């Protein structure tokens, strides 16, 4: 995988074993950030709850977000995530090996953008949305393959890529 735009455009990023993750395709990443760019300035903070390789946070960092928080629970995947961030780490980049749903409840910082892409069919879409209500300071992007109850959120845009949806939400 490569970073698709910004100051790190073209740099390679390692993908974890395909049996444990499914990195967001470059076409989808570009579309997500192009859509996001039409809504907000790329600054402030970006949280990726189910980080995998960290590619979404690296795209955000490359495009101008100052503070990146990545959460990944799987030990092997977290090892790849740490390796991918070695050359990009700064005091405002934080990587955590933890259960996302538990960890975000401990955060007291508001994030400009929160990206949620849990394992498909894990049944944690609504729980993820509920867990971040106190730290949402802007747009929530949810990648999903099943119908999701967006109670408490307003759907501002939704795109479909094959069988997956990318929904852009704000708190109501």
Furnish the topology, listing elements before pairings.
Layout: H1 26-37, E1 45-48, H2 55-63, E2 67-72, H3 75-85, E3 93-97, H4 100-103, E4 111-116, H5 125-131, E5 136-144, E6 153-161, E7 164-171
Parallel strand pairs: 1-2, 1-4, 2-3, 4-5
Antiparallel strand pairs: 5-7, 6-7
Q: What can you tell me about this protein's structure?
A:
This protein has 172 residues and is of the alpha/beta class. It has one domain (26-171): Rossmann fold (3-Layer(aba) Sandwich), CATH 3.40.50.150. 25% of the residues lie in helices and 27% in strands. The longest helix has 12 residues, at 26-37. 38% of the residues are buried.
For the record, the CATH architecture stands as 3-Layer(aba) Sandwich
Number of helices: 5
Strand content: 25-35%
User: In total, how many beta strands?
Assistant: 7
Tell me the name of the CATH homologous superfamily. Vaccinia Virus protein VP39
| Helix-strand pattern | HEHEHEHEHEEE
- Whole-number tally of structural domains: 1
Please write the CATH class name. Answer: Alpha Beta
Named CATH topology: Rossmann fold
What profile does the largest beta sheet have?
Answer: 7 strands, mixed
The poorly predicted ranges are: none
In terms of structural class, how would the helical and strand content be classed? alpha/beta
- Rg, Cα atoms, Å: 15 Å
